[in-house]
């Protein structure tokens, strides 16, 4: 299998660049006109007047924002089957219509969410030399990084990140996790446990909603002890020319499902909806959940991964914690046979997640090009 040992050119830390006081960004970060945030069709609040049914169907609409659906999970954990079914129905609708939604009352401790965010902010605010001791390589991506993909001369994104393995426990190596600030390892471990538990529940909900056995998706991912979970903490420094660049290029998440803890104060995540990019307005203490390419494949495209990107701004840094919930990397992932019929044949050929993610590891984020290239030619 082809893989890559080193970055093709010296790595520049975006945070150092931002803190150096430059007033214009290096050309490597400047995107062609058509890919700049200001040039894309963004949602124009006054041109769009959704009907009543639109509002019900497509989620929350307030004065100046269309937002992705917000779902209260409280009743998921209740005995009352009628209330529980209503939550399931809302999740199903969000998965089919949006591929992206926010959840509140999800069972993860708010305290833990807050300390997770704060400790990671402190990590990124340490001196560069300390962070460099965790510098990553494109072989595993574990550690402190500043780019995705190894194409020499590629346009770069305005962000740094830290990537680590949480599950399976055989890949969990605390020695590769930050040792400072104090407690960060403990908080990562506790946060990981709760978020992975939430992920397991969401897989049960999605399996049930797809008409499959409750444990179908978890088993397809390799079962509780073999499922993959990786944390990527994104740091988007403030940027002197935010209209010329992106914090993260358009992509769909290659794995199964992502549970994102966004910055509580600074927005930046945009989700593609037709030709528009909708800026997600985070709700306090919520997680943002989105469908990844592997669930698109397993569900035979009943659920689809959705393209998203991140914009930056000139006033504030932004931190987000993305937990990627993935299949065990050596299992073949293919459409569930229950979802393959004569009218709806299998849309994708089988592939392991190991093979699948190699593409993004080499090429970096590429919209939805990869999952679309997997569509079988039948
Ligand atoms: C990601 C991602 C969004 C964000 O890490 O894959 O889409 O808001 N992050 O940081
Ligand atoms: Ni993403």
Automatic annotation (TrEMBL):
Q: Which reaction does it catalyse?
A: jasmonate + 2-oxoglutarate + O2 = (1R,2R)-12-hydroxyjasmonate + succinate + CO2
A GO BP entry is: defense response
Annotated region (Disordered) at 25-63
The residue ranges of the Fe2OG dioxygenase domain are 226-327
Entry superkingdom: Eukaryota
InterPro entries according to UniProt: DIOX_N (IPR026992), IPNS-like_FE2OG_OXY (IPR044861), IPNS-like_sf (IPR027443), Oxoglu/Fe-dep_dioxygenase_dom (IPR005123), Plant_2OG-oxidoreductases (IPR050295)
Compositionally biased spans, kind Basic and acidic residues:
45-63
SUPFAM superfamilies (alphabetical): Clavaminate synthase-like (SSF51197)
Example of a GO MF term = dioxygenase activity
Q: Which cofactors are required for activity? A: L-ascorbate; Fe(2+)
For bias kind Polar residues, which ranges apply? Answer: 25-42
Write the record's keywords in alphabetical order, separated by commas: Dioxygenase, Iron, Jasmonic acid signaling pathway, Metal-binding, Oxidoreductase, Plant defense, Vitamin C
Please give the family membership noted in the entry: Belongs to the iron/ascorbate-dependent oxidoreductase family.
Q: What is this protein called?
A: Fe2OG dioxygenase domain-containing protein
Give the classification, highest ranks.
Eukaryota, Viridiplantae, Streptophyta, Embryophyta, Tracheophyta
């Amino acid at each position: 299998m082809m893989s890559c040992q080193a970055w093709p050119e010296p790595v520049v830390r975006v945070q150092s660049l931002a803190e150096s006081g430059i007033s214009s960004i290096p050309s490597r970060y400047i995107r062609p006109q058509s890919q700049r945030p200001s040039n894309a069709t963004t949602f124009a609040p006054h041109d769009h007047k959704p009907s009543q049914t639109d509002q019900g169907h497509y989620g929350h609409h307030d004065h100046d924002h269309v937002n992705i659906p917000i779902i209260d999970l409280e009743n998921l954990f209740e005995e009352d089957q009628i209330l529980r079914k209503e939550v399931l129905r809302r999740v199903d609708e969000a998965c089919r219509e949006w591929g992206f939604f926010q959840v509140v009352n999800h069972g993860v401790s708010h305290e833990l969410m807050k300390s997770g965010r704060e400790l990671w902010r402190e990590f990124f605010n340490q001196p560069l030399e300390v962070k460099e001791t965790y510098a990553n390589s494109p072989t595993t991506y574990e550690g402190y990084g500043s780019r995705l993909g190894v194409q020499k001369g590629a346009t770069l994104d305005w962000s740094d990140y830290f990537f680590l393995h949480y599950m399976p426990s055989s890949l969990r190596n605390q020695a590769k996790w930050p040792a400072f600030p104090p407690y960060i390892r403990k908080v990562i471990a506790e946060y990981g446990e709760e978020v992975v538990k939430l992920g397991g529940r969401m897989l049960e909900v999605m399996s049930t909603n797809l008409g499959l056995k409750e444990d179908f998706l978890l088993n397809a991912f390799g079962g509780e002890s073999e499922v993959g979970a990786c944390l990527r903490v994104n740091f988007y420094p403030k940027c002197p020319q935010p209209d010329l660049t992106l914090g993260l290029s358009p992509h769909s998440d290659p794995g199964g499902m992502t549970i994102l803890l966004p910055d509580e104060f600074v927005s930046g995540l945009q989700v593609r909806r037709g030709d528009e990019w909708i800026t997600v307005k985070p709700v306090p203490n919520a997680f943002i959940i989105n469908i990844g390419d592997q669930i698109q494949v397993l569900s035979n495209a009943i659920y689809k991964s959705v393209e998203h990107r991140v914009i930056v701004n000139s006033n504030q840094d932004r931190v987000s914690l993305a937990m990627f919930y993935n299949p065990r990397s050596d299992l073949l992932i293919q459409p569930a046979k229950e979802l393959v019929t004569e009218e709806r044949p299998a849309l994708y050929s089988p592939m392991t997640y190991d093979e699948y993610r190699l593409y993004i590891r080499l090429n970096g984020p590429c919209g939805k090009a990869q999952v679309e290239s997997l569509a079988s030619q039948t």
